[in-house]
Amino acid sequence: MGSELVRCGLATMLRDLGAFREVLDSGDYDHSMELLHSGRPDVLVVSAPVEQDKAEKLARTAADHGVRVLLLLRTACDQTLERVAAMPADGYLLEGELTPETLQSTLTDLDSGLVPVPQPVARGLLAKIRPAFAKTGPAAPNGAAPVDGDRAASPLTSREQQTLALMAEGLSNKQIARRLGISEHGAKRHVANILAKLNCSNRTLATAVALRRGLVSPPVKRPR
User: How far is the C-alpha of 68 from the C-alpha of 163, rounded, in Å?
Assistant: First the structure.
């Protein structure tokens, strides 16, 4: 979904990259929903916040069907990030930075289990959670989760702290499970608990909150 010009340009780039066997271009909500239910898509790119309600329903349906979601944002302004913060996403794209190179890098990160986030979006998400951070204050000196009115009854366990650190590295649930020697179901449960305790709607926001509060150290950028 989104403007025809952007959709056609993105579809052309994807076909030229040869990243997928089939690239389906749909600007119709009902048709997009039918495709999701058919089990054909592997990745859904949805423009946001264009037709916000429909975009959110598509993203949630995709997530329920195990389809990875890339949100294509027109800008990284506060209004846009406010609208998409609650939408499930495995990564983000910015229209203004959309080139074959950035698209290939995003898809490579996505296939590696990372969460691709353009720098302007990352900065905007960090700024978004600063007011909450100002209310709760920094993390405790020993690196434990800060205790405040919302979380005093449910601090992060040591296992959740380990999971959070791996989330900050951009690891997928399967990779987290492998690193911790647990089942993928167990990893999903830890991630869900972390999202609930940090009061975040998705992994990207949870990582931003964790970095801002000092719950985890910034991951080291590995050279490509």
Answer: 21
Residue 222 lies in a domain: no
- The model carries a pTM of 0.59
Task: Give the separation between CA 149 and CA 184, rounded to whole angstroms.
Answer: 31
**pLDDT, tens only, 152-194:** 333 578 888 899 989 888 888 889 999 999 888 888 888 888 8
> Same domain for 89 and 32?
yes
68 - beta bridge partners? 43
Phi, psi of 92 (to 5 degrees): -130, 150
Angle at 118 between CA 37 and CA 220, to 5 degrees: 110
Residue 31 belongs to domain spanning: 4-116
Same domain, 183 and 81: no
Alpha helices by DSSP H, listed for the chain, are 4-17, 29-38, 52-64, 78-84, 100-111, 119-136, 158-168, 173-180, 184-197, 203-213
Q: Measured between alpha carbons, how far is 19 from 42 in angstroms, rounded to an integer?
A: 11
CATH code of residue 67: 3.40.50.2300
Q: In Å, how far from its chain's centre is CA 88?
A: 7
Buried-exposed string 100-128: b where 16+ CB fall within 10 A, e elsewhere: eeebeebbebbeeebbbbbebbbebbbeb
Structural domain contains residue 125: yes
In a domain? residue 155: yes
The structure tokens listed for 113 are 């289990």
In tens, the pLDDT along 83-133 reads 777 777 888 899 888 899 999 988 988 887 777 888 888 777 766 655 544
- Tell me how many domains the chain contains: 2
